[in-house]
Amino acid sequence: MARVLLVEDTPLLRWVLRTSLVMDGYDVSAPASSREAVELGRTTPFDVVITDLTILPGPDGFAVVEEIRQKYPSTHFILISAQADDELADRARHAGVERVIEKPFPIE
C-alpha cells in the first residue's frame, strides 16, 4: 500500500482529498500545517507527497518538497496550485516535482 503525505491547508479540500485517496487504497497522512508535514516527512518515508503551493501558515509547497527530498530523494511529488502557469511549471520541474495540478480539479 502506497504511503501518501497530503499537505493542504483548506480543511474541506484536505478532507475530500484524503477520503478519496483512502477509498482508493492509499495510506494517507494529512497534517493540518506545512510545519507538521515537514516534521512528519523528515521522520517517515512516503511514496508520494501531494502539496499545495500556498499553505498558511508556514512554509510553502516548495519548502515542503525541498525538506522532504533531502531526506527521501526517491519520493514522488505533486504540487497543486490555484495559479499554475509555465513559470510555476518550470520552477516545479527544477525542484523535482513530477506534476503540477491546477485548482479546481476533478477528484478522479
Q: How large a portion of the residues is in β-strands, by DSSP E?
A: 15-25%
Q: Write down the overall mean pLDDT.
A: 92
What radius of gyration results from the CA coordinates? Answer: 13 Å
Q: Give the N-to-C terminal Cα separation.
A: 19 Å
List the helices and strands in order: EHEHEHEHE
Strand order of the largest sheet: 2-1-3-4-5
State the helix count: 4
How would you sum up the major sheet?
A: 5 strands, parallel
Helix content bin:
40-55%
Q: How many DSSP E strands?
A: 5
Shape: globular
Low-confidence parts, pLDDT < 50 over ≥5 residues? none
Q: What structural class do the secondary elements suggest?
A: alpha/beta
How would you describe what is shown here?
The chain is of the alpha/beta class and 108 residues long. It has helices at residues 11-23, 34-43, 61-71, 86-95; strands at 3-7, 27-29, 48-52, 76-81, 99-102. The chain has a five-stranded parallel β-sheet with strand order 2-1-3-4-5, with helices on both faces. Strand 4 (76-81), helix 4 (86-95) and strand 5 form a beta-alpha-beta unit. Helix 2 (34-43) runs parallel beside helix 3 (61-71). The mean pLDDT is 92.
Summarize the helices and strands and which ones pair or pack:
Elements: E1 3-7, H1 11-23, E2 27-29, H2 34-43, E3 48-52, H3 61-71, E4 76-81, H4 86-95, E5 99-102
Parallel strand pairs: 1-2, 1-3, 3-4, 4-5
Helix pairs in contact: 2-3
